[in-house]
Amino acid sequence: MRILLIEDDAALADALTGALRQRGMTVDHAASIEEAEAYLAAIDHAALLLDLGLPDGDGLALLRRMRAGGNVRPVLALTARGSVDARIRGLHGGADDYIVKPFDPDELHARILAVLRRQGGYLGASLSCARLAFDVETRVARVGETLLPLSARETELLELLLRRGGNVVPKRLVEDHLFGAGGDLGSNAVEVYVHRLRKRLDEAETGARIETVRGVGYLLRAAA
After folding, report:
1. For 41-67, how does the pLDDT look when each residue is reduced to its tens digit (9 = 90+)?
2. Which of 48, 140, 168, 187 has its CA 20 to 30 A from that of 176?
3. Per-residue pLDDT tens digits for 118-142
4. What is the secondary structure of 77-111 as a DSSP string?
5. 3-state secondary structure 147-167
């Protein structure tokens, strides 16, 4: 699950990034509205964590522009503005949840999951393909009752392919999802992880197959 954190406090951003990564999330960090808009144009994040006091503008103004432009990605406002009026303005401005600083990382993680569950089933309890099942909250893959051991990036790749439900996932999206936008990676880094995951799925007889669509990307579907 990939999250965009928009927060100008470097120490807080580092702490939240580390805490969420420990809980199985991939986190991109933007320190300004300008950086956030660049991320929003390039990557389809599961949710946004938005500080309302940013150095180059009001986070709430960014949120209003997003909603006016048809962007329905879940947004959790993170702010020191704790008055009732401020919370009401944030929710009316398009926030799906409003969290007043300081807060506990476990509560933030739980609120992210709760918001995603409310987004039309985006975050289901389980994703599946053929005999393979993936529990979204525990981030565990199984074949029947047998655990399928995966590395962190293999898990990220599997979830991305499962969420696309048999549709082709562009290679560039896989790169951004696994390594971050503008990440420094070798020319065949994606192919390496696709090969590893494909091998694990085949060896475990999951019945799920990763197919390469040349020049486009990858898709996961049940073997014929």
Report:
1. 888 788 999 998 899 999 999 999 999
2. 140
3. 765 444 567 899 999 998 777 899 9
4. EEES--SHHHHHHHHHTT-SEEEESS--HHHHHHH
5. EECCCHHHHHHHHHHHHCCCC
- In sequence order, which residues have a C-beta less than 8 Å from that of residue 40 and are 6 or more positions away? 4, 66, 71
Is residue 68 classed as helix, strand or coil in its secondary structure? helix
Pair of tokens at residue 216: 């486009």
Smallest CA-to-CA distance from 38 within 203, 212, 181 is with 181
Q: Span 159-166, mean pLDDT?
A: 84
The reported pTM is: 0.63
The pLDDT, as a whole number, for residue 42 is: 81
CA–CA dist 25, 39 (Å, integer): 17
Helices (H), the chain: 10-22, 33-42, 59-68, 84-92, 105-117, 152-163, 171-179, 189-203
Rounded to 10 deg, the angle between the 105-117 and 10-22 helix axes is: 70
**For residues 53 and 141, what is the distance between their CA atoms, to the nearest angstrom?**
39
